[in-house]
Design a protein that fits this description.
Number of domains: 3
CATH architecture of the largest domain: 7 Propeller
CATH topology of the largest domain: Methylamine Dehydrogenase, Chain H
Structural class: mainly beta
Number of helices: 0
Radius of gyration: 39 Å
Helix content: under 10%
Shape: elongated
Distance between the termini: 86 Å
Oligomer: single chain
Strand content: over 45%
Largest sheet: 5 strands, antiparallel
Length: 415
């Protein structure tokens, strides 16, 4: 008489299918990929193979007398079946019996080690023991005496570390400037790392170039973007973070994804990615002052909309007046001109210019100071004209903590 197995939906805890199999179904095992279930039918001396997607039997495999316990290897390629005779080995690819293992009498329950090297079979009918099978040779290597009538067995999961890795970046990444990534390795497993080398490998996308790679206790090599260490990391702990400074290409746009992978320490591998948006810079801020002439300021913020605003102030009696400016592109600024000084404020830069006939240009990556042609000073007693003295120029960069002064005519200061 054919009997059935029931399929239960664990989300709702209800029977969703009843599947006819052989007589007196006993054991069941599911392949690691979840596609098939193998049912031992003790009364009909066979196995029923069920397609778990359709809940239908696809084939029956004839085995030795009274199959009972069954277990499938971690790689899903073989099933070991306990019977009243030998242990039958099933090739799950061909769904055929590929071999048998002689044991100490009838066997029932089967358990397979997590590393797939040994099977443990309960043998209640012979010496009341557990037979240990070497799965490479399919032979019993050890018999372990136990209590009366052993039926089933199970293997505890191994305690092992499980490394994690996170990768984040700080501030805004702007073409031509530097950005910073932070990489953190942790252990959320059930055991400390085993003291072997833990290796972090970073992979930068095109558009980012490594400038510096450091981390306390880490041995980091910038040229290969690798960091290693071998000290033990306890469960629930993290190593000191790794910091990676990068230079953003002047032509970089869009989103660039940085990837970091950790391996070793008695664990497999873990990977983390950090998509990084490249933000266009605020460009085109210029202040030009000449006593009695013109003061002009322009600004553009490409992060919102390209808007340029200019204000010009003229003084017919050669006395310059202040020229206030509201930048509607999302950047506030102010330009003022007088016979003695001009001041420009910017979100990242503050410029104080202490002379007339000077030009200060704030560009994407440089601050350029240029002096106009010198006007002649008053005549000397000999009749020659002396060069007119120029007050020094002072620039301060609050965001970067820099300050610079110079009275010369032409200089570049890299940002």
């Amino acid at each position: 008489m054919r009997q059935t197995r029931s399929a239960i939906d664990t989300a709702i805890n209800n029977v969703v299918a009843t599947i006819p199999v052989g007589t007196r179904p006993f054991g069941v095992a599911v392949t690691p990929d979840g596609r098939h279930a193998y049912v031992t039918n003790e009364g009909s001396d066979n196995l029923s193979v069920i397609n778990t997607a359709t809940n239908a039997v696809t084939t029956n495999i004839q085995v030795d007398v009274a199959p009972s316990g069954i277990a499938i290897t971690p790689d899903g390629t073989r099933a070991y079946v306990g019977t009243d005779g030998p242990v039958d080995v099933i090739d799950t690819t061909t769904t055929t019996v590929s071999g048998t293992v002689a044991t100490n009498g009838a066997t029932v329950g089967v358990a397979i080690a997590l590393d797939g090297t040994h099977a443990y079979v309960a043998a209640p009918g012979g010496p009341r023991a557990v037979d240990v099978i070497d799965m490479t040779t399919n032979a019993v290597t050890t018999t372990v005496p136990v209590g009366n009538s052993p039926q089933q067995g199970a293997i505890t999961p191994a305690s092992r570390p499980s490394l994690t890795i996170t990768k984040t970046h700080t501030a805004t990444f702007v073409p031509g400037r530097q950005g910073t990534y932070t990489i953190t390795v942790g252990n959320n497993g059930t055991a400390p790392t085993d003291g072997t080398i833990v290796r972090v490998q970073d992979t930068l996308p095109a558009g980012l170039t490594a400038v510096r790679l450091v981390g306390s206790g880490w041995n980091c090599v910038r040229s290969t973007l690798t960091c290693t260490r071998s000290d033990v990391l306890n469960l629930g702990s993290t190593y000191p973070p790794i910091t990676l400074w990068v230079r953003v290409s002047r032509t970089a746009t869009g989103t660039l994804t940085n990837t970091a992978t950790v391996s070793g320490g008695g664990n497999g591998t873990a990977t983390s990615t950090d998509p990084t948006t490249i933000t266009p810079p605020v460009t085109g801020t210029t202040a030009t002052t000449t006593a009695g002439r013109t003061a002009t300021t322009t600004a553009e913020d490409t992060r919102t909309r390209p808007t340029t605003t200019a204000t010009t102030a003229r003084d017919s009696d050669r006395k310059a007046r202040a020229a206030p400016l509201e930048r509607r592109a999302g950047v506030s600024g102010r330009a003022a001109a007088s016979a003695k000084a001009a001041t420009l404020t910017h979100p990242a830069i503050h410029v104080e210019q202490g002379a007339q006939d000077r030009e200060v240009t704030v560009e994407q990556e440089h601050w350029h100071l240029r002096a106009a042609s010198r006007k002649p000073g008053p005549r000397t007693t000999s009749g020659a004209r002396a060069a007119r003295a120029r007050p020094p120029i002072r620039l301060t960069f609050p965001r970067f903590g820099l300050s610079w002064s110079e009275a010369g005519a032409s200089h570049w200061l890299a940002g």
